[in-house]
Amino acid sequence: MDLFNHKKQAMGVKLEPGCILIAEPLLPDENFSRSVVLICETGSEGTIGFILNKPTVYTIEDLLTEFAGSTLSVYEGGPVQQDTLLMIHTLPELLGGSAIKDGVYWGGSYDALLQARIDDRFNERELRLMLGYSGWSAGQLEKEIEEGSWLIAPFDKNILFEAEVKNIWTRAIGSLGPQYAHLLNMPTDPRLN
Question: Is 165 inside a domain boundary?
Fold first, then answer.
């Protein structure tokens, strides 16, 4: 795709846990349109990440009855295994999980989450629940980056847990610097411009 000649931006930026993928404004894949993805794991078998800016209509109590009364929002993590509830958080001492970068973890124990909720031992801004995940086979994401479908931003903990989900894509683009500001005004469908 690379209508904006951003291949240069992708070159030399290391795809690693913690980096943030930003969908090009015109990315036609409706699963990832205007999405921001946190990369959690990458290796010889492929890459795993979570979309950060796609809320669902669900709360955790809709999915897990033992969380009755909880209003923790659930987000769409990606198109893979959407029957699986996963989490990213900053609470390894409470929930466990696998380190991503700089105090951010993915995975963990739902029993521990339930107990932490009962004991009121965490702030909801330290946790994001995801239905499904985003996954790419070995080499697939690298090819998409080379084609210009994705921009890569450095790790930014503030973007991960941004309360205003609608601002995440804009903030992620802004983190790339002023040379990318023009992307903020791109319509989702250029035929409507």
Answer: yes
Does a structural domain hold residue 193? no
pLDDT in tens, the chain (193 residues): 444 555 445 444 589 999 999 999 888 888 999 999 999 999 999 999 999 999 999 999 999 999 998 889 999 999 999 999 999 999 999 999 999 999 999 999 999 999 988 888 888 889 999 999 999 999 999 999 999 999 999 998 888 887 789 899 999 999 898 999 888 877 666 555 5
What's the pTM? Answer: 0.89
Q: What distance in Å separates the CA atoms of residue 191 and residue 110, rounded to the nearest whole number?
A: 45
Q: Is residue 190 part of a domain?
A: no
Question: What's the domain range around 153?
Answer: 7-11+19-181
CATH of residue 172's domain is 3.40.1740.10
Q: Is residue 189 part of a domain?
A: no
- If one counts the domains in the chain, the total is 1
Sign, Cα dihedral of 62, 64, 67, 71? negative
